[in-house]
């Protein structure tokens, strides 16, 4: 594709296409022609390769980006472990104390926290696996009210899939800027450094951190070549850099095995003048999702709403699927239209960005709240939703208007952190009692 040159009047310009090779330069001529690592790059820049996969990964899986920057990322002091008491996350101890329980769980809306920045506003609520073995996932919540300072954060553990629920994130990455708001998502791949500012005040939302592999578009199979999330609708930032000729102190914060480390350097980390490759941060507007559904009878599996998937080594089985339930038409005839009651080999962590989820009508599942139905834990519509759906006139119906629910679905058994179970004080103690115990017996035995 043609080289994109950065315009100072448009810091949020984007390149389109998921998984595509992109190239972008903030200064004309900064990208070399004909080779990746010339002996003397233009303008005295340094060459740095950022690899998201092993060098020898198959061509269709290989992800890498070449950076042309003022100083290489290695130019910093030693990393030092941050005292767990000095930040709110305490993710290491939380990971080691995950509790695996079969109970259905639901949380009331999580609070804003105006006293902390992005890094200090991360909380591990649930997860499975081990980032040191590149296996599994973590589910985090974020709540922040302050801009990061002269800092850059990155996770060595996995890719951050960020789902804003409230407020706008201005994300300055090494490769350019992303402006992300509710009803959009953004993915920051493992290792990419970034800084978060809050142009519209406090923020909160959800994160799925994928420890193994990377998120990708799901296969469409018999559906054909179109539908769900289209590659063209994903956006990557164009190159933008800061040129601080005078030394200024920055802090690099690393999430490494769910612990935080910091290092000092005397220059900005946001000095990439040009880049090319297929390993970069990106964002997606959930409103562009092309919903597919049944036009005859029966309720299809929720997999038809998959936006991104983090596959396991077993085909068709995901470490993490990101699934949404957007506004859509229901037209199936003779059908119980909400999700049926089910027990699943997959764990389901649900969140609500806005509005009301059509399978939960009692008000217990609210925006900024969440629920977890672990492997083989029975769940489905609450009693009121079942009663209404069983008796409603079945005509074409638009559901979900003004609403957006989502699900992090995983083949792994999900453990819940001490923060998620107790510290946050958001667990609904009577979730099961209020949702399913009121279901009434209506069986009539024809033989009696």
TrEMBL record:
Top-level taxon of the source organism? Eukaryota
Provide one Gene Ontology biological process annotation. L-phenylalanine catabolic process
**EC no.?**
1.13.11.5
Molecular-function GO term, any one:
metal ion binding
Concerning Gene3D superfamilies, the annotation shows:
Jelly Rolls
The answer to whether keyword Zinc applies is: no
Residues where homogentisate binds = 357, 379
Indicate which residues the UniProt annotation says bind Fe cation.
Answer: 342, 348, 379
Q: Which terms are listed as keywords in the entry? A: Dioxygenase, Iron, Metal-binding, Oxidoreductase, Phenylalanine catabolism, Tyrosine catabolism
Q: Which GO terms describe its cellular component?
A: cytoplasm
Q: Which sites are catalytic?
A: 299
Cofactor field: Fe cation
Q: What class of enzyme is it?
A: oxidoreductase
The Homogentisate 1,2-dioxygenase N-terminal domain extends over 13-286
| Similarity comment | Belongs to the homogentisate dioxygenase family.
Name of this chain's protein: homogentisate 1,2-dioxygenase
Q: What is the lineage of its organism?
A: Eukaryota, Fungi, Dikarya, Ascomycota, Pezizomycotina
């Amino acid at each position: 594709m043609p080289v994109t040159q950065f315009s100072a009047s448009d810091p949020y310009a984007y390149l389109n296409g998921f998984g595509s090779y992109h190239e972008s330069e903030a200064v004309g001529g900064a990208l070399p022609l004909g080779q990746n690592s010339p002996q003397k790059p233009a303008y005295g820049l340094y060459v740095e390769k950022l690899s998201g996969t092993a060098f020898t990964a198959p061509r269709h899986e290989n992800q890498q980006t070449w950076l042309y920057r003022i100083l290489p990322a290695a130019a910093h002091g030693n990393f030092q472990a941050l005292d767990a008491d000095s930040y709110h996350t305490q993710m290491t101890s939380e990971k080691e104390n995950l509790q695996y329980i079969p109970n259905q769980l639901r949380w009331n809306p999580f609070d804003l926290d105006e006293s902390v920045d992005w890094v200090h506003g991360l909380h591990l609520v649930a997860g499975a696996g081990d980032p040191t073995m590149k296996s599994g996932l973590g589910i985090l919540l974020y709540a922040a009210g302050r801009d990061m300072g002269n800092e850059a954060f990155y996770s060595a553990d996995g890719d951050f899939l960020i789902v804003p629920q409230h407020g706008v994130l201005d994300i300055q990455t090494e490769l350019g800027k992303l402006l992300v708001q509710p009803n959009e998502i953004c993915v920051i791949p493992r290792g990419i450094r970034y800084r978060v500012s809050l142009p519209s005040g406090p923020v909160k939302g959800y994160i799925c951190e994928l420890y193994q592999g990377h998120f990708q578009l799901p296969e469409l199979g018999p559906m054909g070549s179109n539908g769900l999330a289209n590659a063209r609708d994903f956006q990557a930032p164009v190159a933008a850099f800061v040129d601080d000729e005078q030394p200024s102190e920055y802090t690099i914060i690393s999430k490494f095995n769910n612990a935080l480390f910091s290092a000092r350097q005397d220059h900005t980390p946001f000095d990439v003048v040009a880049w090319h490759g297929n390993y970069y941060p990106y964002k997606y507007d959930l409103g562009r999702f092309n919903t597919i559904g049944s036009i005859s009878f029966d309720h299809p599996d929720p997999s038809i709403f998959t936006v991104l998937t983090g596959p396991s080594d077993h085909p068709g089985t995901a470490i993490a699927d990101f699934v949404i339930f957007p506004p859509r038409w229901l037209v199936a005839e003779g059908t119980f239209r909400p999700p049926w009651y089910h027990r699943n080999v997959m764990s389901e962590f649900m969140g609500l960005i806005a509005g009301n989820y059509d399978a939960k009508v009692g008000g217990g599942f609210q925006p900024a709240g969440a629920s977890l139905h672990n492997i083989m834990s029975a769940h489905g519509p609450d009693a009121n939703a079942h009663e209404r759906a069983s008796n409603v006139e079945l005509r074409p119906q638009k559901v979900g208007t003004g609403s957006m629910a989502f699900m992090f679905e995983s083949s792994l058994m999900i453990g819940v952190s001490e923060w998620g179970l107790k510290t946050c004080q958001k667990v609904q103690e009577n979730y099961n009692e209020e949702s399913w115990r009121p279901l009434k017996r209506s069986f009539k035995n024809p033989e009696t």
